[in-house]
Amino acid sequence: MRPTLRLLDGALIERILAEARDLLDALGVEVHNPDLLEALAGHGARVDRGTSRAHLGGALVDRALATAPREFRLHDVLGRETHHFGAGRVSFTPGSSAIHILDGETGKIREPLTADYVRYVKVVSGLTHIASQSTAFVPADVPSRVSDSYRLFLSLLYGEKPVVTGAFTIEAFEIMKDLQLAVRGTAEALSEQPLTIFSCCPTAPLKWSDVTSQNVVDCARWGIPVEFISMPLAGFMSPVTLVGSLVQHAAETLSGLVISQVTRPGAPVLWGGSPAIFDIRYETTPMGAIETMMMDCAYSEIGHALGLPTQAYIALSDAKALDAQAGLETGIGATLAALSGIDSVSGPGMLDFESCQSLEKLVVDDAICAMTQRLTRGIEPRDDFPARPLFEELLREKHLLIARHTRRHLRDEIAFPGPVIDRANQARWLEEGGLTLGQRARREVARLIEAWQPPRLGDDVKRELIRRMESEARRHGMDALPERAE
To answer: Does residue 478 lie within any of the structural domains?
Structure first.
């Protein structure tokens, strides 16, 4: 039996959705995209062009829910399936778009560079329990207008895993789409074997900017999956109550669903988000707060009730170092996410309110992910009945270390962590150097980078990726791309 967590009952989910639908119909959603407003009007929305508000009636929402896929798959650069969203599997990806990195050598938070990003991709390539990359942080040695496509470029050039990404401008989507076409070859192949997921974020409350709404439209047209990242802030930009914030989250996410399905019925989506409470004492949005995690798990229940695969920014920390707080908040979040069955968990490696990525924390979080994935397999009998013969052997041999039953089931039953997690007794720990968690994590980062192998893309594809990225860089005034440490 798979262990599960429930925070909402069926009646409360129905009421939250009913209130969200009432908001969309009565108050509408602000859409700063004239072409999209016209498209919504053509599909039955009541549009006030003076206020740029689209009122989405129940019939329009129902049609969007009817055509949104209940499941979809993601593939790596070689075309191999890596994810089956909607099949009840929990997968993990690093947190995205940090503006800082925690330097493993100095312990200081600083701006990241291209070399840091290449090291990051190499580390993620070797992490067994983190199934995808993300465009995890923004290198400071390229212009901001290039940074979206540049991060995707580096991810595809140095790694094989699919990528969770996004665009902060409308123009960036074109080159990011072209980079994916360079890998897949054709638009049909890209649609059939998606390589990325784009994060698309409405603005609280009930608003879509020109950029983000156009990203939804463009992704739908090309068959690129999107995760809707509604971000209500409880007590600031949404009601202070968790239920009130869930109503807002549902309304904003339903509006994104309508936009995608109006553009292309059947466009793949994740019912996602990154809500938070607002800590009025510090004017911060703590992702490690238990209430934030509760909202993540609760809106995932709502998404699953609608039959949709889900995503959440959880399993991350607000700490500024790889310390006990980082482990506490990440471990609780990863466990709750796994018990809630969130399909795509974004967060490993993240610190400081989603603004800082740490390679050392990433390898620790990979071990946390492994533990939660073992938890989701639950407890089941493995040749345990009848029990008497096994206990007769135990009484006879005085142990079961080499028993056939042990040898058959040891690896399936017990998940042994890697070298980051210390399980030695004190004498052996001291004999092996008495390393702290941070020291073990730095050693594992170095090992993964040393063990990295170049992705098995054809040389012609790699040359095409470089050609397209160099062309984009020149378009934005760069003479050359930064040096990439191999």
So the answer is: no
What confidence tens digit (pLDDT) does each residue in 110-164 have?
Answer: 999 999 999 999 999 999 999 999 999 999 999 999 999 999 999 999 999 999 9
Those residues whose C-beta lies under 8 Å from the C-beta of residue 269, and which sit 6 or more positions away, are 68, 69, 225, 226, 227, 228, 256, 257, 260, 308, 309
CATH number of the domain to which 270 belongs: 3.20.20.480
Tens of pLDDT, residues 308-336 = 999 999 999 999 999 999 999 999 999 99
Is the overall model pTM greater than 0.85, yes or no? yes
CA distance 234 to 231: 9
For residue 32 the two structure tokens come to 């700063």
**CA–CA gap between residue 219 and residue 207 (Å, rounded):** 19
Number of folded domains that form the chain: 1
Give the side-chain half-sphere CA count within 13 A for 359. Answer: 28
Residue 36 lies in a domain: no
Distance CA 433, CA 445 (A): 17
Per-residue model confidence as pLDDT tens digits over 246-293: 999 999 999 999 999 999 999 999 999 999 999 999 999 999 999 999
Structural domain containing residue 259: 66-377
Q: Nearest CA to 242 among 252, 232, 251?
A: 232
Q: Which residue has the tokens 């009122």?
A: 55
Report if residue 436 sits inside a domain.
no
Residue 14 CB coordination number (10 Å): 13
